[in-house]
Specification:
5 helices; alpha+beta; 217 residues; single chain; 4-stranded antiparallel sheet; 2 domains
Length: 217
């Protein structure tokens, strides 16, 4: 029985590890399969999907915490942190250039962090988010490399918004340190594994009891 328990837990563990085996990994935030987080193995940070904060100003999201994400441990990253995400994703190179080899990785990053505009596939999709520039302004920054049509460019200081401005196709970059609480998909896998083990254990007891009854007769 101990051996079977070990095998069951080993299966659970292998499924848990398999969900985090690449450089950038989609994770769940509130429910199994929601995919609202992108975990960067290189920096150890979890990024919230930009689609969760579109049409909200930087002040509303970060200062007033109108959506409640700051209270949950998220914070506004620096331009350098967003730039690192892009580099780690392969959406730009280390010199902030967008080359032919960055095209497909940028599409993958759009898929991970959430497309905020032109998402039909007919024209270049993009994922735009705001990053703090100074006391009163934010960059529409570190996002343009995600306009993946082969002619994309990267900028972190060319387009400025006021901190009270909002836009339906622009989100706010938010990041956090990974939670120590198991993510929903991991919890679900553990539940399935334990339920399977419980079923097997119950079945063994029924079979054993039937065998003992037969022996007495």
């Amino acid at each position: 029985m101990i051996q079977k328990l070990s095998v069951t837990l080993l299966i659970i563990g292998s499924l848990w590890v398999s969900s985090s085996s690449a450089g950038l990994i989609s994770r769940d935030l509130d429910a199994f399969g929601d995919g609202l987080l992108t975990y960067d193995e290189d920096t150890g940070l979890e990024w919230l999907d930009l689609t969760e904060t579109t049409n909200h100003s930087w002040n509303a999201v970060v200062v007033s915490d109108a959506l409640g994400y700051i209270a949950r441990g998220f914070f506004a990253p620096s331009v350098a942190q967003v730039t690192a995400l892009f580099i780690n994703a392969g959406a730009i190179d280390a010199d902030l250039n967008f080359l032919a080899g960055n095209y497909l990785p940028s599409l993958d990053l759009i898929d991970l962090v959430g497309c905020t505009g032109n998402c039909s596939g007919q024209v270049s999709p993009f994922s735009d988010g705001l990053v703090e520039a100074n006391a009163t302004q934010v960059y529409l920054g570190a996002t343009q490399a995600l306009i993946a049509d082969g002619t994309a460019y990267f900028t972190d200081n060319e387009i400025l918004f006021g901190k009270t401005e909002s836009n339906p196709v622009v989100g706010v970059w938010l990041v956090r340190e990974p939670s120590q609480v198991p993510e929903p998909n991991a919890i679900a896998l553990i539940g399935v594994g334990l339920a399977t083990f419980g079923f097997r254990l119950k079945k063994e007891r029924v079979v054993k009891a039937a065998s003992m009854g037969a022996a007495l007769h």
